[in-house]
Amino acid sequence: MPEITPTPDIVASLRADLLEAGYTSSAVRDTWGALADEAVGHGLRGPALAALAGATEPVATLARALFLGSPAAVASVDAALPRTGSAGLVALGLAEVTAGEVVPLALVRPQEYTGGEWWIASDLDEAAVGGALPTAHVLGVGGASLTLAGLQLPTPVARVLDLGAGCGIQALRSASDTVVATDISERALAFTRLNALLNDRRGIETRLGSLFDPVAGEEFDRVVSNPPFVITPRVAGVPAYEYRDAGLAGDELVRAFVTGVGAVLAPGGVAQLLGNWEYRGGEDGLDRVRAWVDASPVPLDAWIIEREQLDPLAYAELWVRDGGTAPGTAGYAALVEAWLADFAAREVTAIGFGYLLLRRAASGTPTLRRFERIVQPLGDGSLGTHLAEALAAHDRLTVLDDDALAAATFVVAGDVTEARHHLPGAEAPSVIELRQGGALSRTIEVDPALAALVGASDGDLSVGALVGAIAQLLDVDATALAADVLPRVRELVFTGFLRFT
């Protein structure tokens, strides 16, 4: 694999050329059409290449060469990139010229995100390579990286650490002017530097090294990581892809992150990452994560959300296919069996995947401990904004005793609806649900008293006043009702159903 050389002047020329050509996600989709675009998302290049056949406009040339990784005529590339030319792509390590054709050695793809668009350079994907990926492969924008980018808290901070930066997606997304991006792969860091220049994102420093070694003794306000958490057998014949495998056994990488991140977090600093954890011998996977949090020498708040579980066979097949080895091809069965044997040796019955949010308790005493499973499809909108609002609500609730909470006023969030389910012919509902349209799309079953309180929360009357009125209406003791309702109000505020006025 050729060295990536992000020369600033050449990258600036490439940026100007891509802007002038109108090389955007929407332009590419319009050029090859909806069906071909969907096929590309499934790893199939044929329909897109067929749609581009004979097209000579700059966007078509760039889509062919830089998006799909397919050879293009030197004259076409030079016309599409008048400042950079094919020679500039060669100098950057993104292509080579052979027999009058520009042969891509890397991809540069437009990538939409909320509020804008990036160009992201990365290694050729599986479709362009046409087989198994090299172990030093630097991944582009995948589902996991987009998920974590959307989870990032949008609140600006002074210093951010992007641990395991890969091609630099999280560093680009970080709400800070000062970012340290680390990785064990110098090639990945070269792509990070290239993408920072290509998107005119300043203030990103790259450092080579594993886990927290490159930043020992430093503190950050935010740590974000899409680490190489994939659980991989440590046996001969199983490739160890740098972009997904840290070389550790089982879920040791995530454990090491959780127990070690507190040392590089400033007081009040937040770490966010994606990860896998094992279910071993009847032990709940979330309990394993809880034990890691408890083992941290630095007290940490924790909010852990498990999004899915896979059994060992499904997990093995997923990651064998991810490496470019398809079912029915040589070596597929042997790789899957190696994964199964590895899991069996540790009595692993399932593997969990989810989101981890950890915060160094500013007071030194953790106040947040949530370990939950949320498996339903998520709503529209920024999860990062929701997480930030939930943390702020938690901190505000923490200093309110029940009397202060009863004196507070709330309004119902704009995405909340109510559903009532009646048995045929029954006047009263048998089930009342509050449903969240955005954020984590929670559905919470409530009783008539809490439903009435939520329905009346328009910012005018305090919780205590509403409880008193509802108690009178239902002919129940107001003190007993308050004792029952107030803890559930706290939960509704944290989860975003109710908001402070």
Can you describe this structure?
By secondary structure, the protein is of the alpha/beta class. Helices cover 40% and strands 23% of the residues. It is built from 20 helices and 18 strands. The strands form five sheets. The chain has an eight-stranded mixed sheet, sandwiched between helices. Helix 10 (169-173) links the parallel strand 6 and strand 7 (179-183). Helix 2 crosses helix 3 and helix 5 packs across helix 6. The protein is globular, with a radius of gyration of 26 Å.
Biggest β-sheet description = 8 strands, mixed
> Which structural class fits the helix and strand makeup?
alpha/beta
Query: Order of strands in the sheet with the most strands?
Result: 8-7-6-9-10-12-11-13
Q: Number of helical runs?
A: 20
Total count of strands:
18
Stretches where pLDDT is under 50 for at least 5 consecutive residues are none
What is the mean predicted local confidence, pLDDT?
94
Quote the distance from N terminus to C terminus: 57 Å
Q: What helical percentage do the residues reach?
A: 25-40%
User: How does the overall form come out from the CA principal axes?
Assistant: globular
